[in-house]
Amino acid sequence: MLSKNKIKFINSIKKKKYRDEHQCFFIEGEKLADELLKSNHQIIDFFATKEWILKNESNLYLKKVNAIEISQEELHKISSLSTPNKVFAIISQPKHSFSINEIQNDLSILLDNINDPGNLGTIIRIADWFGIKNIFCTTESVDVYNPKVVQSTMGAIYRSKVHYVNFSLLFNQTKDLNDFNIYGTFLEGNNIYKEELSQKGFIIMGSESHGISEEWKKNVTKKLFIPNYPIDLKSSESLNISVATAIVCSEFRRNA
């Protein structure tokens, strides 16, 4: 049974201020729980219905997780979903770091002021699918541990490293690297399907409403364009940022 203080604490970490203070976040739902038990993330508390616990006894035993049985009524009190699932966990925020040696021979995604939680979560999932481990966000971007972001990742959050940095730091550290490009998407860019794309560098994706900020445009060394089809006919003004990211990542990996 959940105490009133525990319920109060869980509801508090739905806000970034308290997630940062306690250095934790939460996940809910069977898919995220299944992926969690396969990961190396540190579990603080794990709650589930009796049905779910009985079904997953062996996985809980192997992971040495003590699952606390709770009722559907208790799940309703802590869930952020309109229809609560069967399992809920509180997890420590991992301490991610990066080095230039790590990123200089790989692709990384840079997200400039991405504010929509669903978009960030989907981009993390896309990066995971295409084997891109490091995602760098401007400090103004939505928090990676926002419940809607976590839910949208469908478990990819356990395998991806999301960093919040000043892009100037990254650009200064990589400016002297050989054959290291900074790619960005622009309406006046070169057709991505006709470009020779490297398997190392930065891919900057800007917000749907403003694109890549003026501050960072000057750092782009290769401008790319995702053409509509047919190219001479009027179509939507832009693509959703997560859809555009999927197309770009797919094209980079097709050229691998």
Architecture overview:
The chain is α/β, with parallel strands linked by helices and 256 residues long. The protein folds into 2 domains: 4-92, Ribosomal protein L30/S12 (60s Ribosomal Protein L30, Chain: A); 100-254, SPOUT methyltransferase, trefoil knot domain (Alpha/beta knot), CATH 3.40.1280.10. Helix content is 37%, strand content 21%. It contains 12 helices and 10 strands. The strands form 2 sheets. A 6-stranded parallel sheet has the order 7-6-5-9-8-10, with helices on one face. It has a 4-stranded mixed sheet with strand order 1-4-2-3. Helix 9 links the parallel strand 6 and strand 7 (161-164). It is elongated. The termini are far apart. The model has no long low-confidence stretch (mean pLDDT 92).
Could you list some keywords that capture this structure?
256 residues; alpha/beta; 60s Ribosomal Protein L30, Chain: A; Alpha/beta knot; 2 domains; 12 helices; 37% helix
Note the topology:
Blueprint: H1 4-12, H2 16-22, E1 24-28, H3 30-38, E2 43-48, H4 50-55, H5 57-63, E3 68-69, H6 72-78, E4 87-92, H7 100-103, E5 107-112, H8 117-129, E6 134-137, H9 147-153, E7 161-164, H10 167-174, E8 181-191, E9 201-206, H11 214-217, E10 222-225, H12 241-254
Parallel strand pairs: 2-3, 5-6, 5-9, 6-7, 8-9, 8-10
Antiparallel strand pairs: 1-4, 2-4
Helix pairs in contact: 8-9, 8-12
